[in-house]
Specification:
With 307 residues, this protein is an all-alpha fold. The chain folds into 2 domains: 31-179, UbiA prenyltransferase (Tetracycline Repressor, domain 2), CATH 1.10.357.140; 182-307. The protein has 16 helices and no strands. It has helices spanning 7-30, 34-50, 58-82, 84-87, 97-100, 107-127, 130-151, 158-162, 164-177, 183-206, 208-214, 219-223, 225-242, 245-248, 253-275, 279-306. The chain starts with 6 loop residues before the first helix and ends with a helix. The mean pLDDT is 90.
Length: 307
Amino acid sequence: MNRSPPPAAASLAADSGLARRGARWRTGLSVFKIRIGVLIMITALGGMAIVPGSRLSLAQVLWLALAVLVAAASAGAFNQFVEADSDRLMARTRGRAFASGELPRSAGWLAAIVALVVLAVALAAVATNGIAALFVALGAITYGVVYTLWLKRRTAWNIVIGGLSGSFAALAGAAAVDPTIPPQAWALALVLFLWTPPHFWSLAIAVDADYRQAGVPMLPVVLGVERAARIVHASALILVASSFLPLVFGAGWVVGAGAALGGAYFLWRTKALARAPSRKAAMAAFFASMVQLSLLLLAVVVDAAMR
C-alpha cells in the first residue's frame, strides 16, 4: 500500500525545492553585475536631468532607464562569459558563476545575452528616439567588445577607453530629451569618461596581485603600485576640476556644491593613497569615487527639480 509522506517531510521537500530554485535564480542574476548596471542607469538619469527645457513623460523615463539597465547588465554578463578562464586565476573573481562552472558557457547563454542587448536598444528607440538608442548600443558594445575583447589584455589604457561606456549612458539620457545633445550633457559625459580611470585603477591597486596572476596589464601591474597611486591622484584632480564644467553651461549652484563636496572627499582619499599605497587606502579611494559620482549626479537631479 502506498503511503503519502508525512506532512513535515513534504514541507521540508517543498522548502528544499524552493531554496534550490532561488539559488539558481541568484546564480543566474549574479552574472549580470546588477549593481554596476544600476550605477550606469543612474548616470543615464543624470544625463536626462542636466538637459534644460522639455521633459520626458514618466513612462519614457522608466522605459529608457530599464533599457540602459538591461544593456549594461547584459554587457557585464558578456564580460563574465568571455573572461571565465582568467576569472578562475583571480581570488576576487574565481567564484563567479561562469568561472566556477555553476553556469555553463553555452551558446544558449551567449544568445540570451545578445538578445537582451538587442531588446534594450529596441526599447530605447521605441520609448524615446534613435539617437538615444544608438548611445545605449554604443555603451554595451564599448564595454562588451571594445574593452573586454579588444583592449583588456592588450594595453594598460584598457579601462580609459572602456570608460566611454559610462559617457554613452549619460549621452543616451540626454539624447532622449534633446537629440541635438546640448553642451552641458557633453560636459557630464566628459566627467564620466574621466571618472572611470581613477575609480577602477584604485580597485586595480587593491587587487594588484590578482591581475599579475592573471596576466592582465592593468596600470599597477605595468607601472608598479606606487607610481599608479600617484597617477590615480593626478587623474582625480583632473576629474574634480572637470566636474565644475556644467556650471559654465548653465547648471546651478547645487551642482557646484555636489562637485565640491564629492570632489574634496575623493581627493582626500586619493592623496592618502598616493602618500602611502596599501590595499586599505586603495579600497577607500575606490569607494570614495562612488561617493563623488553619486553626490554629483544627485546634485544634477536636484538642480533640475529646482529649475
